[in-house]
Amino acid sequence: MSGYEAEEDSARIVSFRSPRDSSGHGSHTASTAAGRYVTNVNYKGLAAGGARGGAPMARIAVYKTCWDSGCYDVDLLAAFDDAIRDGVHLLSVSLGPDAPQGDYFKDAISIGSFHAASHGVLVVASVGNAGDRGSATNLAPWMITVGASSMDRDFASDIVLGNDTKFTVKIFLHLLKNVCGKWQSLISSQS
Question: What pLDDT, on a 0 to 100 scale, did the predictor assign at position 79?
Fold first, then answer.
């Protein structure tokens, strides 16, 4: 919290001063790590089945490090210290610096994860979201860096033409960087 307070106008409204999730990102990554088994889930009626996190019986501790305006190094380092003090065994860090990463000795996540590792805490961090060659981040040798995954289900739909010809297509969801440098959803299909 001190990084936000030092950098931002104190009169500005903060979404939540607690670790409560205001964007959905923290809830999503927490459920990926430790979400309980849920039956009958689907995406808009497609890909029905069960879903669960990687360790559904795990307990989660959440630390506020980022705000609508960004993430501050002092808040990141305080979260690492709090997690160590709280006896956390594993830290999942689903954020990172812009690529290229730069010097480990000046990067808060590299410094905090080294401190955690020296106290026996395993740090697992995201590789980044850019997807471009050379865009990987969180590459310090004392943390595990992860990225990309796959699903065990298809997004299949039938398309019926006016002459009653029927095609079954599988839809793959991708992200595409447009000319403005923003990520856009892209839906492609294969029959």
Answer: 94
Across the chain, mean pLDDT equals 77
Parallel/antiparallel/unpaired status of strands 122-126 and 144-146: parallel
pTM above 0.90, yes or no: no
Query: Does a cis peptide bond (omega within 30 degrees of 0) precede residue 19?
Result: no
Peptide bond into 100 cis (omega under 30): yes
Question: In angstroms, rounded to a whole number, what is the distance separating the alpha carbons of residues 42 and 7?
Answer: 41
Domain 2-146 has CATH 3.40.50.200: yes
Alpha-helical regions (H) of the chain: 2-7, 25-34, 73-86, 108-118
What are the sequence ranges of the domains in the chain?
A: 2-146, 156-190
62-116 residue pLDDT tens: 888 887 778 889 999 999 999 999 999 999 888 887 777 778 888 999 999 999 9
φ/ψ of 4, rounded to 5, equals: -60, -50
Q: Rounded to 5 degrees, what are φ and ψ at 108?
A: -60, -40
Specify whether the CB–CB gap between 96 and 102 falls below 8 A: no
Contact predicate 17/53, CB 8 Å = no
